[in-house]
Task: structure prediction
Amino acid sequence: MANKTHFWRPLAQKLSKRQFLSTVSAVAASVGLGGCAEAEDVWDAIIVGGGTAGLPAAIFAGQRGGKVLVIEAASAIGGTLFLSTGQMSAAGTKLQKSKGVTEDSPQSHYDDVMNISHNTADPYILRLATDNAAGAFDWLTDNGFEVYDHHPVTGTTHEPYSHARYAWHKEGGMGILALFEEQLEPLIESGAVTIKLNTEASSLIQNDKGDVIGVETVDADGVTAKYMGKNVVLTSGGYASNPEMFEDLEGAPDYSDVSYPYSQGAGITLGTSVGGYVRYGENHLPLFGAILGSEEYPAPMVAVARHFPGDRPPWEIIVDAQGERFLQEDILSHAAYEEALLEQPGEECWMVWDHEIHTQAPKLISGGFMGMMDPDDIADAFNEGYHNFFKADSIDELAEKMGVGKDGLTSTIAQYNIAQASGKDALGRSHMPLPIEKGPFYGIRLQSWFLTTFAGIAVGEDLQVIRQDGSKIGGLYAAGELLGTGATSGRAICGGMLVTPAITFGKLLGERILQFDV
Result:
């Protein structure tokens, strides 16, 4: 690669807010969000965060006749919809009925999530989500939202549902955002909804009873303002781009850097400042398969390993820091991979294979979340020994380069080769096409990664923010990822149980929970 710019150098620096938003700023112009009317005496609803939950809250509150102010830190609405695949799940939808799925129910949806999460999801928040998901999903489809022709399905690579209720738009989160923009446009034109971009909510205003009655803001030019509201709704997302908050709340470092830059945990800071508290960080669960481009965390993801057996049956073995296998590599469960990785110190492991597998197996490494590595890059990474790519002439040398136990790796490979020859593996693996015996030998270091965050601000059954003693904070509500993946999905990845509850709760807030005179 002497005449080629190394692919990892541009990624070694954290994606700045300015860099990210340069790719999406056209959205603001497309729907005329650049201006903002002056604040009125009292808004019916002030929504902090114009994303998956905040926008439907604004839409439905505006359609009810409310005067709504949306405060958005970025220069465009949308939030994590810019990165989201937009996967949704709902039971009892019109889409299901049109496809002959007639026996599904919110109760079945609830039971499935509880089963998949081993009863770690919040029962009250989950019940609110599953009971009202069909109404939110039908609202989307009634307004032109189109999913893939073969949807709904029971699942993809995580644990499946008992019924086909899982569906999404072929344009992912951008398909959802496009519909939100269409619904917002007449409300913005009429003055029912005002969106203030490039503005951060710096603090909440309380009265002498502790109720939240307004928001203080600061814009990109440093200009401060106060806005008073009958209802304040926090929908500013998670904290996946705030490594200090991530580690504090989930007890593990935020190793990867692939999240929306504005996922800074602003809602948690605001909510706790007025007496709210945070829960469900204990439901922390990593995603599997990241190959990172730096040793300084959070690091950019330069590639991913195609580890799911349903997509690509394994030819390699996976080992821990002692060089020992800890996982049945061909198990058809993403959850099994994630739970096994969670138990590994540093949430790291290594894949190992030999030259014969390297030349015969289907492609293992793909270009990562940002699509930055092509086949030549991958070959160069092994040959040059770039970061988490390893190549050696012997098993001992490979173990030394990877930093794993030599004796353990040598013994593990010997045992695996015996299992491969006999067809009987101690961990139950059946797909073992080739032994690992012909050098050079290869390895990659895999690290956990995260797109969402599990801890969130605590709310009651009406989405009103609560104190540790269960008492409600008057005038303050929350929805979306701010509630935490651990609330709606538990210690698991349950299909569609982040985007769908966000839209559902935003709709419920705007449609009937928020109280104001019209």
